[in-house]
């Protein structure tokens, strides 16, 4: 990378625009950047760094302070750097964020954001590459192959930093080397190894916790059996403890199983004894019950015979029961039919007196029938057929009557619609006239309103300008008052400064005159003059008073003059700024009378408000006109539609009237005396129903009387065969259903009881009970209860013993499962434990812990290799600078008190062959060593950055500590750097350097800021 041109404007101490032609300096290979302290030598390097990376090194990164305090208020700070890299030529221009004066901004300023422009020269013309800060920064970083930290260490070699690096501790060197060589990835490897080691350790801890939990579970399981643990292994020996627990529980299980067997046998024996005694008692109770039931059967034998005889007579009469019931039912039906005929006769007579439909029929109603017979109605069937035919005709014409009603409703609806349409047509005409009148009124004033509204934009601009002028006038008045106050102070300070200067010069002149007299008083004839060396003293100066007191007064006067001059300079700068502000505001119209500006602003505001009101009113009028046009069109369309609809409605009304009249005439005959066909239909349906009931009742009576006569004849024929002489006799022997069922049930129950009693006395239990009774056995309930109590106790003992044995069996199974799980888990935990141990050792070694005797981390190890390369590269130059005496050498000697090692540096004195610490070097030797270290580090970092070629280098300060011979050797080494076209800039204010180096970039300091010029035989300002 080579720098060709640098332009600085309003940046750092440079108030104006300064341009440096580095191609002109490059022609000499080696040039000097010099100037007095504070002039801005370092600011030139800051400008290069800011142009390339958008920031400056160290504590000067505050972008807001990059702008020059000497620059004009409105001047934009900017730095332009033209450079070439990788065979391509670029130009980058950057401007930091700064506050620009503005009348409308907050506190009189507007913040301007940082800007960047990157261009590339292709084919003789500049082409824009990027105008974004981040994008241009990424492009430059890719071109240079170095970030800002590496650039400032490689291209701008700060000797103070490398002198500190030369004497620093290993930890401080690690931080700088890591930034330069970017070895953070090795720290990431260390952290990843530590993370994996901790994860493996956590996994082993988790497995150990699970093993402890299994051991605790085993102890808890065995604790329920209250084992004797006097001979048990220690709980720390978990595997042996688990084996002993399993064996002890197995032995306890055998013991409990034997106890359970014995308890079960005793319980069985007791249960058998209870069973035998219970069976004997049950048999005796069965015998007593059977004897009682036998006695009851013998006592009920006579009653059973009576029941059987009564059932026999019932069954003979039951043969005729169906015919008897048929005769009774037929007679009942005949009586019911006669009653129905009488009711129908009565209803028909009443209906004929009230219903005109029945009254018009040709019916001949007979007189009231006798008590045992009924008379039919003559001609009823014929008239019923005629009524049904008429009913069908009326029912078929019902839809026509519905249609007539619908036509009448439509006729009424059309009449109302015709009236509504006529009213709507009249209203539409009135609405159209109103809309036309309103539109005409609005259009009359539209032209004047448009002309007034057209001036709104102009009036707003005039109002804004008037407001701005009023603000400028007020600020101008304040600025004039401030300037006048400052001018008074300026005149006072100037008077004090001139008086102080006059007194100082007077005292100085007096002291100088007194000095000549003092020298003259010391002259001896024949001896050399200490000033000119002459042996003759023709006119010695006369004596005067003063002495040391006069010199002290002169020094005090000089200090007073300098203080007054500094105060005057501050007030002069303040006066210049105040006068400049007054001039700027006057140029903006600030000298206008405030009353005039205020009146103009108020008038402009009113005019702008009127114009804005006209704009709003014009918008409202145009919107209203649009709505009126839409409403007028809609009203016209509505009126046309209403007229058409009115014509259609009138035609429909005439048609409906004609249809309604014709249909009404056609249905009038069917209605008869009724108001509607529906009423005539309901009357016919009622008449048909009444007449139909009378006809059906008479027919039903005839059928029922025939069935009753036939049933009676059949009964008379069946009585002799059943053994009865009359129907009454048969009815007396019949039982009702419930009584017969109950009698049969009692007979069956008695017979069944007799059979069961016989079966009981034939059963084995009753026969065995008879034998036991003959043998003298008697039932003893007390003895039986005692046997049962004993059996219950034996059963509970057996259950307890079985429960204890089951618990022991479950405990044994659980222990076997826990032991198997423990062995499997212990086997699977060995590999994680070994892995955790391996990872822990690896992490400790990478982090410089454990068996790492040098306490050198992986990152330090890599950086140690880089430092070794740096030491070799630095030694090549240090040998030349130190006349072959010194070498820099990397050392990985173990540090004291357990500190981390690997980044040590030592100096090899080839004259004595001894090695010593770098802190033992003298000031000049330290400068040569640190300069060599910086150049060596630049070479190594350049190689690490991908072999980027660095054609421009800057070496900052430190030459004042060298003697003449050392300076000569250092200059020879620096001369060697420019071999191959490299340009080296030395930053120094050492006087001897100015004499040795002809090409110089000089920084000149002044009250109004610094300036630059190039001196290469012809002093030409930059």
UniProtKB/TrEMBL annotation:
Record's keyword terms, sorted: Coiled coil
The Rad50/SbcC-type AAA domain, residue ranges: 5-210
Superkingdom, taxonomy of origin: Bacteria
Coiled-coil spans in chain: 418-452
Positions of region (Disordered): 535-555
Keyword Coiled coil belongs to the record: yes
InterPro entries: P-loop_NTPase, Rad50/SbcC_AAA
Subunit structure: Heterodimer of SbcC and SbcD.
Family (UniProt): Belongs to the SMC family. SbcC subfamily.
Name of this chain's protein: Nuclease SbcCD subunit C
Organism lineage: Bacteria, Bacillati, Actinomycetota, Actinomycetes, Micrococcales
